[in-house]
Every structure is written in C-alpha cells, then in structure tokens.
Write a structure and sequence with these properties.
Layout (H helix, E strand, L loop, with lengths): L3 H11 L4 E4 L6 H9 L3 E4 L3 H15 L3 E4 L4 H5 L1 H9 L4 E7 L15 H5 L5 E4 L5 H13 L5 E7 H4 L21 H13 L3 E5 L1 H5 L3 H11 L3 E3 L14 E4 L4 H7 L1 H5 L2 E5 L20 E5 L12 E4 L2 H9 L12 H12 L8 H11 L5 E4 L3 H9 L8 E2 L10 H11 L5 E6 H6 L3 H8 L4 E6 L4 H9 L14 H7 L3 E5 L2 H11 L6 E6 L10
Parallel strand pairs: 1-2, 1-3, 3-4, 4-6, 5-6, 7-8, 7-10, 8-9, 10-11, 11-12, 13-14, 13-15, 15-16, 16-18, 17-18
Helix pairs in contact: 1-2, 1-7, 3-5, 3-18, 11-14, 12-15, 16-17, 16-23, 18-20
C-alpha cells in the first residue's frame, strides 16, 4: 500500500519528471525516498535557488515540470527567488517542502512559519497537503503548473503526513485539455485583414514554446512572407539566419529604436503567443489604437501592456492555422524595409571590434557548434548577447527574461547539459553574478559535466554603473575587487584560463570542448565596456 509521499511521487513521474533538485532536510526525507523509488533521480545542489534553475535547464529539454526540493524554514525561504522566477518566466515547477505536524504548528516555533502564506504571492497556487487530499492535490498541482501560462505550485506536506498510508482512491489523472481553434464566424474579419495585408508583421513570445507551436509560427511567417520579431524567450522559433527573422527585442533601447519603426509601417500585426512580461517600458502601448492587431494568446489580456482589436484565447498554433485557411498569400513588403532593419541591427552590434564584449560574443559563436545551447545571466552582457547571439532552434538561449534575476546562467547550463550530455552547452555570466553562486561549480564537478563558462570581467555591476552615470548619480556600491576565477575553478575540480584577446579566447574555447570537466574562461573586457552598446 502506498503512503502519501508515494502518491505524490507517482503523479510527478507520470507527468514526465525524471529529476528532482534541492538540498535535503529532515522534513523532506520521506518525499525524497518516494521520488527515488519511482525512478526520479534526486540531485544535490549547493543552494535551493540554483536547484530550481538546474531543474529549469532540464525542463527546456524534456518539457516536464521542474521538481524543487526545499526543507522547512530556511530551505524554502532560500527558494523564493527561483519560485518567483518560475511563475514570471512561465516555467512549470512543483516546489516540494515539509512542515511541522498539525499538532505542533501552534505550539512549536523553531524554524516554523507559514510556507503557504510566504509563497502564495509568487506562485500560481500553494497547498498544504493532508492525508486524504494527496492524490487530488498532486494532480491539481501538475495541471495548474503546466496549463495556461505555466508557473510554480507549492506542495507543503507535513512531516507526519508524508509517511501515512494512503487509503483513499488514487484517482486517475485528469485528462489534458485538447487544443481548440477559434470559431469560424469569429475569424471572418481576421481573415479579411490578413488577405488585405501587404505589410504583415508577426511578434511571437513564450506562449508559443509552452504550447509547442513553434513550427506553426515558422510556417505562417514563411507562407505569408511576414517578418518575425520575438521576445528573447522565443528566439529561434524561426532560425535567425533566415531573412524573415529580425531577432529578439525588449531590453535594448538601441535595438528597439531600429525595430519599432516597423510597427508604424506595418498594416497588420499578428501577436503569436506574445507575452509582454519580458518587455521593458518601451514596449508599453507600442502601436496606436487604430492599428490592425490580431492576438492569439494562452490566456486573456489582464496585463494592459498593449491592446488588440481582435483577441483569440487558447491554442496559438491552432489559431494561426485557422486564420490562414482560405487566405492566399500575396506579395508583401515590396519596399524591402524588414531587410534594411535586419542589416541595421547587424551593423549596430560592432561584431568586428578588436576586443570587448561584442568580440567575446562573436568569437564564442564562431567557435561553438551551430547546435550549441547557451545560457546567460542578468546584466549588461545579457542585453548585448540576447541581441547578438543567433539562435537556430527554439530554447537555444536560456535566461531569466521576466524576473531577470542574477545567478541563473551556470545552473541553467548544468541542467541542460545533464539532460542531453551530447549537446554543446555554454554559459555566459558577469563577474558579479559568478561570485554569487560559485558553489555550483562543485555541482558541475560532481556531475562531471563539461561546460565552458565565459565570465565577462569588468569588476563592476556594469549595467547599474551605467545607469548611475546616465542619470547623473555618483558611483556607489557597484565596483569591487577582482576574483581569480581560473584559480577558483581549479580549486573546485575544473579548469580555468584568462583571456584578453580573440586569439586566446578561441584557443580556450577549443580546449574546453575537448575536456571532460568544466572550464571557466575569464574574459577581461575592462571598465565601461558597455558604453553606447545598449
């Protein structure tokens, strides 16, 4: 007969989960054992925040919900950042933690607070599990975490409940929702707009990835010769060496100034799973109310970052397919404006500089295989890299784009490499972000994963320092002494090297790809390296 922990573990295994990440504590041991019994590998991280990001790295390969394990009190408190990130960045996550018994919660105070109350504002749902509710809540947690716009759900299981025999019926999981396309009478006007358009433009976002509609978007753009702008999460929906792909947008004012004039010149904007949570204020109401805009989204618009005259809620791919039925393609963009924008974007990045952050990115892209998956941390380097790094397939660039938290790049790379060891994976991180979670280098060592980690060394919080100068503020709490990252890497079981030019970086990348351990490549770019680039 199963116990409560077994029931939860079986449901997560049925959802496709094969890994769980976290840090043990007495209150989650029974949950961990149950996960292990059903074939879910439990892996130790060095911090709960990183554990969640490692899980996300795996998710971007297998599509299954992330399982994050955090013990009572300080464990779950450490995990709040990555739980919030999962909800904002639309990553399905089940956070498992333990709590004291019902009998103890009102008279015992050591490490005790209300986990559910703490995480409720940053989750889609949070539940305290009882003996008889285990099957229902496990199934409900998976459904809530994965459907609509995905996010985090907490299951807080009292330590005594975990081991109780589960005597209630282990009900069947609820059947998944089937994709639906809009009713034909609702599409008549939209089809007419598409048929009349000679300058269509598509903006795609993370809903497309989460619904598996990437190919439908690519096919639609190619059929109707519609250029594609994506959020950073949706980069690669259309391979970015194709002429219709204009790349990612949202964080770089410099690039947005080149892209956004297309919004004025287009006669039809089609929003394909576009979620503006990734975008900065320059993308608030970016087109006039009279503009013809058709939106296909996973959930209804409650964000008010933009509005569209026609809104279809549901499956994005089915909506696009229905829109295109019976509409014949026509010649579009006869003035070639999207091609001019694409060329201007390329020239703006200064790919050919002798040395600097753009040279680092360019050298890495040239010396890593086409199928490489990259992860990038938050900071000035991320804004530049998100524009410069071409993606040739979806989920080829992993980052925190909605919460924009630091400390995510290395654990994301760990998870992605763990899930698919044959895939080349590279991580990009600023020196401040690297210092935040150096402990995960030990996780890379323990898992024996060969990942190059490129550190942009400027001994400053470059983006914040730039904002201080641009707003007339004085330099405050943004500069720090340098760390010998190669020495740290060697101390933690990896290899490390300093680079100060393209030739040394190229040599380091080639060597890193031949090693059976990770390599920290410290690329010294110097202070104020991002001036005029963002």
């Amino acid at each position: 007969m199963s116990n409560v922990a077994d029931v939860i573990a079986k449901r997560l295994h049925n959802a496709g989960c094969r890994y769980a990440f976290g840090i043990p504590g007495g209150e989650v041991l029974a949950l961990m054992e149950a996960l292990d019994r059903v074939g879910i590998r439990v892996i130790l991280a060095k911090h709960e925040n990183c554990a969640g990001f490692i899980g996300e790295g795996v998710h971007h390969f297998d599509g299954a919900p992330v399982i994050l394990i955090a013990t009572i009190g300080p464990g779950i408190a450490n995990a709040v950042n990555v739980i919030a990130n999962a909800t904002q960045d639309r990553v399905p996550m089940i956070a498992l933690t333990g709590c004291v018994t019902d009998a103890d919660q009102h008279s015992y105070t050591h490490q005790v607070f209300d986990h559910v109350a703490m995480v409720t504002p940053v989750t889609k749902a949070a539940f305290r599990v009882s003996k008889d509710s285990a099957a229902t809540l496990a199934d409900k947690a998976v459904a809530i975490a994965t459907e609509g716009r995905p996010g985090a759900v907490l299951l807080d299981v009292p330590v005594d409940v975990q081991k109780l025999k589960f005597t209630a019926s282990e009900q069947l999981s609820r059947a998944p929702c089937a994709p639906m396309q809009p009713a034909p009478h609702c599409l008549e006007k939209a089809r007419r707009w598409l048929a009349e358009s000679v300058r269509p433009l598509v903006i795609a976002g993370v809903d497309v990835l989460n619904q598996g509609g990437e190919q439908s978007v690519a096919d639609f753009c190619n059929r109707f010769n519609a250029p594609l702008i994506t959020s950073y999460k949706a980069k690669g929906v259309l391979p970015e060496d194709e002429m219709l792909a204009l790349g990612g947008a949202g964080l770089s004012p410099k690039c947005d100034k080149l892209m956004q004039p297309l919004l004025e010149k287009t006669d039809l904007i089609i929003l394909a799973g576009y979620d503006p949570i990734e975008m900065r204020t320059g993308w608030r109401n970016p087109w006039p109310m009279e503009k013809r805009v058709i939106e296909f989204s996973a959930v209804s618009n409650l964000h008010y970052m933009h509005q569209a005259e026609m809104n279809f809620v549901g499956d994005v791919a089915s909506g696009l397919n229905a829109l295109s039925e019976g509409v014949s393609p026509r010649k579009t963009w006869s003035d070639g404006e999207p091609s001019f924008v694409r060329l201007a974007l390329y020239k703006s990045h200064n790919f050919n500089e002798e040395w600097g952050p753009a040279a680092v990115i360019d050298t890495c892209r040239e010396n890593m295989p086409r199928e490489t998956v990259a992860s990038v941390d938050s900071g000035a380097h991320r804004i530049l890299l998100s524009q410069m790094w071409p993606c040739y397939e979806p989920r080829a660039l992993l980052q925190s784009t909605a919460l924009c938290t630091m400390g995510c790049a290395v654990p994301l790379a760990i998870g992605r490499k763990l899930a698919e060891p044959e895939r080349p994976v590279i991580a990009f991180v600023g020196d401040a972000g690297m210092e935040m979670f150096l402990g995960e280098l030990a996780t890379l060592r323990d898992l024996k994963l060969a990942v190059p980690i490129v550190v942009f060394v400027d001994e400053s919080l470059g983006l914040i320092e730039l904002k201080q100068r641009n707003t007339g503020m004085h330099n405050l709490a943004v500069d720090f002494d340098g760390t010998d990252f190669p020495a740290v890497a060697k101390a933690l079981g990896g290899e490390g090297v300093w680079c100060r030019d393209r030739a040394s970086l190229q040599k380091a990348l080639k060597a890193a790809q031949k090693r059976d351990t990770y390599t920290v490549i410290a690329a010294v770019i110097g202070e104020k390296a991002y001036d005029g680039r963002l």
